[in-house]
Amino acid sequence: MTIPDLRIDGDRLANRLAELARIGATPDGGVTRPAFSAEDHRAHDLFAGWLAEAGLAVRWDAAGNLFGRLPGADPAAAPLLIGSHLDTVPNGGRYDGALGCVGALEVAATIAGSGLTPARPLEVVVWSDEEGWRFSGGFFGSMAFTGTLRPAMLDAVDAQGTSIGEALKKWGLDRATVGDAARHGPLAGYLELHIEQGPMLESRGLAVGVVDSIVGLVGLDVHLEGRAGHAGTVPMALRADALCAAAEAVLACERIGRAAVGVTATVGTLSVRPGASNVIPGACRFSVDLRSADATTLWRCQEAIREAIEAAAQRRSARATIAPSMQVAPVALSERLVAALERACARRGLQAPRMGSGAGHDAMILSGIAEAGMLFVRCREGISHHPAEYAGPEDNTTGVQVLLDAALELCGTAS
Fold it and tell me: Which of 57, 128, 373, 395 has the fewest CB atoms below 10 angstroms from its CB?
């Protein structure tokens, strides 16, 4: 198959990434764009303008996902979907998610500007709330799109007590109609470009890698209820200290993660009530993030962590409530799309190893309803979710060029 030799505009790509990074910019060079915040909406509005400038038909769905459609010669053909997310973690980097969104836009804009018509439609997508830190969930938009959104996610509140329903309302959305975002028609596939968020490509001196699998992820929301009391009058032996129970549980999570091969176990948030220096902690809440590429290991470690939390609570005369906030099995990505990305790399003379992803991505959610593929771009020292996150302009352009070549192959051209 002959693939048209179209070229990505690297300067435009870099300029758009820089413009996005100014929305939610922090003093030390990071970016904070919480999901469904004013900053997140500004970024989406800016991106919607770029989609329209490129000649794409722009629409929003009921879950806050943003789409731009480039028509195909056969309007009834299943579209190829390309995209990522624009929300960030607190004081995160400027490339995580944003590179995949701007890269998808550049793919569509380059094809549209060439005068070529793809045989099938091409759609750019910006998923809402991928990161999940504001409402302790994640993949909100892609789960709504695939019809797998958990009802509990619609009852979530952030640290300031704002419900996700209230946040949606400020975006002109209604939590009662989020289910309308579910897609019912077929897709020709889903491609996602992302920085690696790890050091392997840099250690091998390679610009890109083709992702063939994504780690499984279990998220737990743990609430330990003890008994508050005066720090000076309640004897040590008679206490039900929720924070001490949490301390035991957190260390147990670490111990279980260390003991298993290829597992990570992280407690990233912890809050204490009532939170006074002279009061015994009466309640404690924390998160558990558990990951493994092996499903059996993932579920086994989850059970071990649950048992350890219950045991720690019992020893401290506390009560444990453990609720899942996320549960996604490890995913093998589409061999057809992996091969298409490998061919695109080969056309540009690029060595691109197959590799697994230790981070979760919207591609793992999309794989439930369509074939999905991912491409990683090298990032400096593997640093991500941090202001020092950096992916060089040459590597970014290379990655988007590979994405363009793969999209041209998968969509075909009619003129």
Answer: 57
pTM tops 0.90: no
Cα atoms in the 13 Å half-sphere on the side-chain side of 132: 24
Measure the CA–CA gap between 405 and 207, rounded to whole angstroms.
16
What ranges do the domains of the chain cover? Answer: 10-214+330-411, 216-328
Where residue 255 falls (left for φ over 0; alpha for ψ -120 to 50; beta otherwise) is alpha
Strand (E) or helix (H) holding 149 = none
- The C-alpha atoms of residue 250 and residue 168 are separated, in whole angstroms, by 33
pLDDT digit string (tens) for 68-103?
999 999 999 999 999 999 999 999 999 999 999 999
Mind listing the pLDDT tens digit for each residue in 123-133?
A: 999 999 999 98
295-299 contact pairs (CB < 8 A, 24+): 295/216, 295/329, 295/330, 297/260, 297/261, 297/262, 297/263, 298/216, 298/218, 298/263, 298/329, 298/330
Among candidates 41, 5, 9, which has minimal Cα distance to 24? Answer: 41
Q: Are 400 and 218 in contact (CB under 8 A)?
A: no
Contact 341, 210 (CB under 8 A): yes
Domain 216-328 coded CATH 3.40.350.10: no
CA dihedral 171, 172, 174, 180 (to 10 degrees): -90
Q: Round to whole Å and give the CA distance between 347 and 182.
A: 36
C-beta of residue 189 within 8 angstroms of C-beta of residue 80 = yes
Q: Which CATH superfamily is domain 10-214+330-411 in?
A: Zn peptidases (3.40.630.10)
- Report cis status (omega within 30 of 0) of the bond before 281: no
Task: Identify residue 186 by its one-letter amino acid code.
Answer: P
31 strand-pairing partners: 25, 92
pLDDT bucket at 159, cuts 50 / 70 / 90? confident
* Residue 78 DSSP class: P
By three-state DSSP, how is residue 389 classified? coil
- Which residues, 6 or more positions from 75, have their beta carbon under 8 angstroms from its beta carbon? 121
